[in-house]
Design brief:
two-stranded antiparallel sheet; single chain; mainly alpha
Length: about 475
């Protein structure tokens, strides 16, 4: 009888192992499809007493927060598709073309001195131009109270006013068309699950950028309607800071639309042939191409900064001085006393003389634009020579990247010719407008080259998933 407690203890300890071994299919466990669960030590699920005497819950491998996050991500993945539809790409590229057009037309509006003809911002009621003679008289009366009319156009007639009014009105209507033609399709594509989850967030961001661009447009125009924002008796113009901000936001909108539209098309092309896409990624990931990829990204930033310096030149009418190239007066640069003049300093200790002259002095602003443009041209030609002279780069670089590099070289040559011609001929309307369009075309070519030479992480992950997916063999007919 003394041994009965020991026997009961041994049976109690062996019972779980016997029942688990009895009800387990050992043949199924040998299959590689069965995921083996890690063994937990005996008693790990039993609550234990902590140091303060309270019951401590056992540590689990996945917390409730992780489980909830996993459920949220699965729900989100079920709502949005894996890839965006091609129709979204074509819509984004069409929107980019519309933004390209409105940027060029906005330059024409500024060059024709039409931007200050409408002195009010009415997003809804201002969609229609004046219809009756009384309405035109009322609008003309508002314009005659502006500084531009008093200082520049005191003898302007009503018919002349109508021509500049229609230019500004068309520019504003085009902006509304850009906004509506983006917001409505964006809501449709997201509601109909035509876009992936990351692309939906990007589209919402672009929509917000378009709304912010409309606000910046009126903020810019408002700066030219007040006498206190420019020197008394000087040429009435909008603030060069606000003009550059307005132009820069338009460039960002265009770049975002172009980049995302091309990325969707490229993603579909890569997923159509995962084997070729995998080989392409292996070539692009080579360390020998790292310098080229980073150089293309630096070129995009350099082209953007050069275009923004052109915005400062336009805002200050700095292209109307030193109409010669490469000299500026008697030398390559104006005198130092002219470049860093005390006239533009607003403090008694002249601590702001450097940045004030760089952003407000027409002579230094034009010199900065020349330096940036020359640096851009030299950098592009240097990168092109690197692709030609390097045997390693000539072997690894895909043919699409080589063609894109040739396109960048062509556009930068055209842009330099347009810029010099615009300066020499005292900023004529056709050349100035073409020069502004050329800056956006050059940025587009660099963006296209970057899209071809960069490795998209999402597309690479989808390609690897396609390659890992087993090939489903057709079912054999039952005989």
């Amino acid at each position: 009888m003394a041994s009965s407690p020991r026997l009961m203890f041994m049976l109690h300890k062996a019972a779980p192992r016997l029942t688990r071994s009895f009800f387990t299919c050992h043949h199924a466990c040998k299959s590689p499809l069965v995921r083996q669960q890690p063994k937990r030590p005996f008693g790990s699920g039993i609550p234990r007493l902590s140091s303060d005497g309270l019951l401590a819950r056992p540590q689990t491998s996945a917390s409730i927060g992780n489980i909830a996050q996993s459920l949220q991500s699965n729900k989100r993945a079920r709502f949005f598709p894996e890839t965006s539809d091609k129709a979204v790409a074509y819509w984004l590229l069409g929107s980019a073309a519309s933004v390209f057009g409105i940027v060029v037309f906005g330059g024409l509006t500024r060059l024709t001195e039409s931007g200050l003809s409408i002195t009010e911002w009415r997003p809804v009621t201002g969609s229609m131009p004046p219809r009756s003679a009384e309405d035109w008289t009322a609008e003309f009366t508002k314009y005659r109270s502006s500084p531009e009319f008093k200082l520049l156009n005191p003898h302007m007639t009503l018919d002349e006013f109508k021509s500049i009014y229609y230019m500004e009105w068309a520019h504003r209507i085009w902006g509304r068309v850009v906004g509506m033609s983006f917001l409505l399709p964006a809501a449709y594509f997201i509601a109909r699950r035509k876009v992936s989850a990351p692309m939906a967030g990007k589209i919402v961001g672009i929509a917000g950028l378009i709304g912010f661009q409309g606000f910046l447009g009126w903020w810019m125009v408002k700066s030219g309607l007040k006498d206190d924002l420019f020197a008394p008796g000087s040429h009435p113009r909008v603030s060069q800071y606000r003009l550059t901000a307005h132009l820069g936001t338009a460039f960002l909108c265009y770049t975002a639309m172009l980049w995302n539209g091309l990325s969707i098309l490229r993603e579909h092309k890569l997923l159509a042939d995962p084997q070729a896409a995998s080989k392409l990624f292996e070539r692009l990931k080579s360390p020998d191409l790292r310098i080229f990829r980073r150089s293309v990204g630096a070129l995009a930033v350099l082209v953007f900064c050069t275009a923004m310096s052109g915005g400062l030149v336009a805002g200050l009418d700095a292209g109307l001085i030193y109409n010669e190239f490469p000299y500026m007066g008697l030398g390559l640069t104006p005198p130092k006393s002219e470049l860093f003049s005390d006239f533009y300093s607003h403090t008694s200790d002249r601590s702001d003389i450097w940045w004030r002259n760089m952003l407000e002095n027409p002579s230094l602003v034009q010199l900065d634009h020349r330096i940036l443009a020359t640096t851009t041209f030299t950098s592009i030609m240097g990168l092109w020579a690197y692709t030609k002279l390097s045997p390693t780069l000539g072997t690894l670089l895909p043919a699409a990247c080589k063609k894109g590099m040739h396109g960048v070289v062509g556009f930068v040559g055209l842009q330099v010719a347009l810029g010099i011609s615009t300066l020499l001929y005292l900023v004529p309307l056709p050349l100035a407008s073409a020069h502004q369009a050329g800056s956006l075309a050059l940025l587009s070519s660099v963006i296209i080259l970057g899209g071809r030479s960069w490795v998209p992480r999402r597309a690479a992950r989808l390609v690897s998933q396609r390659l890992m997916k087993p090939i489903q063999m057709p079912a054999r007919p039952v005989t």
